[in-house]
């Protein structure tokens, strides 16, 4: 029986000053086969130096960038329009049209990350609050909003359907 799937090896991208790609991780895929993830670069001594959000389409790797050049970034999800989400530094990020946009934090929080984006642009993920609780969030207009789960001090929104249903853990 023939395999009903195709395996494609993903190549990495080098970043200025860190030409050696050591590992690549595909972490999301859309209906047209565009893959997103991270390419890890190593310095001349073989030490980890930088992770960068990457997309792959038709065998070509594209560096999606970061909010600041010195920051690591990672793309975790992608919708059918090619909008990718993940993180850059300590903030959730949207990678779209060659631009990286920070998605915001909860009031008093210091970290956020985005896991998924649906075809309507609804973005879900996790962010910490002023009390250090990591909570499921949605992102819109540069800010994060808690997904209300009664009594939760920990929650995570990891996937979102095109109809707006959110899946995760709490």
SSE blueprint and pairings:
Layout: E1 20-29, E2 35-42, E3 48-57, E4 60-65, E5 73-78, E6 84-88, E7 91-96, E8 99-102, E9 112-117, E10 123-128, E11 134-140, E12 143-146, E13 156-160, E14 166-169
Antiparallel strand pairs: 1-2, 2-3, 3-4, 5-6, 6-7, 7-8, 9-10, 10-11, 11-12, 13-14
Low-confidence stretches are none
CA-based gyration radius: 16 Å
CA-to-CA gap between the ends?
Answer: 41 Å
Could you give the count of β-strands? Answer: 14
Largest sheet: 4 strands, antiparallel
Biggest sheet, spatial arrangement of strands: 1-2-3-4
What's the overall average pLDDT, rounded? 89
Percent of residues in β-strands: over 45%
Count of all domains: 2
The helix content, as a percent range, equals: under 10%
Structural class comes to mainly beta
Give the SSE string: EEEEEEEEEEEEEE
- Give the count of helical stretches: 0
* Basic shape: globular
Question: How would you portray this structure in words?
Answer:
With 170 residues, the chain is mainly β. 0% of the residues lie in helices and 51% in strands. It folds into 2 domains: 69 residues, no CATH class; 68 residues, no CATH class. The strands form 4 sheets. A 4-stranded antiparallel beta sheet has the order 1-2-3-4, with no helix packed on it. A 4-stranded antiparallel beta sheet has the order 5-6-7-8, with no helix packed on it.
């Amino acid at each position: 029986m023939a395999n009903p799937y195709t395996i494609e090896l993903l190549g990495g991208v080098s970043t200025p000053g860190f030409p050696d790609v050591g590992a690549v991780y595909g972490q999301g895929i859309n209906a047209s086969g565009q893959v997103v993830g991270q390419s890890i670069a190593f310095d001349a001594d073989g030490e980890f130096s930088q992770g960068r959000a990457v997309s792959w389409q038709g065998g070509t790797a594209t560096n999606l960038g970061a909010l600041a050049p010195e920051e690591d970034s990672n793309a975790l999800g992608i919708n059918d329009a090619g909008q990718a989400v993940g993180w850059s530094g300590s903030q959730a990020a949207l990678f779209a049209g060659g631009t990286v946009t920070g998605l915001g934090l909860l009031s008093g929080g210091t970290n956020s990350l985005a896991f998924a984006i649906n075809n309507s642009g609804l973005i879900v993920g996790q962010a910490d609050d002023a009390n250090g609780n990591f909570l499921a969030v949605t992102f819109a207009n540069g800010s994060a909003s808690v997904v209300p789960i009664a009594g939760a001090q920990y929650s995570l929104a990891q996937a979102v359907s095109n109809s707006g249903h959110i899946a995760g853990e709490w």
